[in-house]
Amino acid sequence: MPRNPKLEEFEIETKPTRSIRRGNVSNFFYDSNTGAFLGRTAESWGKIILFYIIFYAVLGALFMICMVTFKEQFINPRVPRLQQDRGLIGTSPGLGFRPLPPDVRSTLIWYKGTSYESYKYWEDELIEFLKVYKMKGQTAGAGQNIFNCGFRSPPPPGKVCDVDIRAWEPCIEENHFSFHKSSPCIFLKLNRIYGWRPEFYNDTANLPHDMPHHLQTHIRNLTQYNRDYANMVWVSCEGETPADKENIGVVRYLPYAGFPGYFYPYMNAEGYLSPLVAVHLVRPKTGRVINIECRAWARNIKYDRREKLGVVHFEVMIE
Ligand SMILES: *[C@@H]1O[C@H](CO)[C@@H](O)[C@H](O)[C@H]1NC(C)=O
Ligand SMILES: *[C@@H]1O[C@H](CO)[C@@H](O)[C@H](O)[C@H]1NC(C)=O
User: Cα dist. 7→13, 15, 19, 77 in Å?
Assistant: First the structure.
């Protein structure tokens, strides 16, 4: 049978040249015939290295863009994404009161002066609200952060100011927050806004006209010897109508008639506690509803009753 030259040719061509060298390890590392090193020529190696250099450069660039975009969140999870003007709450903090009535739509603090069953609800509410203030020393991470702040010694970064619950006396748990004596204590709190710095009314010669006179007098008295006390977010509570003004009686503010300036700005430090003002209604008239409005005073606190900015309203009724 004559040989098919085409087939022969084909066979020769397809004969794997590499099979001859199969098993020859040294040729794998360096092939003197082709100049290949580890199975690739210098040119091939050059291309592949160049490819990976570009590939990782692009990958690295993308990663850097991500890092820059989300820098704050990556580095400090305590910094909120929406800050100040960009936040929904805006720059003006609201004022809140405790204890809160059981019905969220109500703002009436009502009880019978002598009956424990009647004021127990309010007492429990306050105990619950003030729990964090009592617990601070025992809470891990919070206790060691506490700094003994003063008007001339604001806390160093990362530290938080102590809130001395003893300074609220007689508005303390052991004294039933004075509810049992028909002279209840209401606590006021300014909502936290990250990074917000109050602009104090600290020029006693130039207090705003609509600030109640008793507060103006109090500020002048308090700052007479130490001007540092003026750096406070002032607080005032008044009866709304002339009748309410009469019925509310003497109001005391503990420990100060305001939130000391060294508590601000709030930077979400571990263990931060909002300062509170205990408003002690020393001898309110019993047997009638007293409408009370409390205001917080700083140049950059908006006053808007409808939006509930810088002001809080509640009623007290002691039978
Ligand atoms: C008054 O308050 C402003 C901040 O609102 C502060 O910069 C200034 O130093 C304060 N003045 C005094 C006398 O403490
Ligand atoms: C301010 O001081 C005067 C006298 O020093 C005192 O009569 C007055 O009651 C004080 N007012 C307040 C609100 O503390």
Answer: 10, 12, 20, 74
Average pLDDT rounded to a whole number, residues 223-228: 90
Are residues 127 and 199 both part of a single domain?
A: yes
Minimal-distance CA residue to ligand 2 atom 1? 221
Residue of minimum CA distance from atom 11 in ligand 1: 202
> Does position 79 have pLDDT exceeding 90, yes or no?
no
Buried b (16+ CB within 10 A) or exposed e, 251-260: bebbbbbbbb
What is the chain's mean pLDDT, rounded? 86
**In this structure, which ligand is nearest to the CA of 214?**
2
Nearest CA to ligand 2 atom 12: 218
Give residue 254's pLDDT. 96
202 lines ligand 1 (CB under 6 A): yes
- Overall number of domains in the chain: 2
Of 47, 74, 101, the last residue of a domain is: 74
Q: Provide the total of helices (H) and of strands (E) in the chain, helices listed first.
A: 8, 13
Q: Is the pLDDT of residue 7 over 80?
A: no
Assess if residue 50 is contained within a domain. Answer: yes
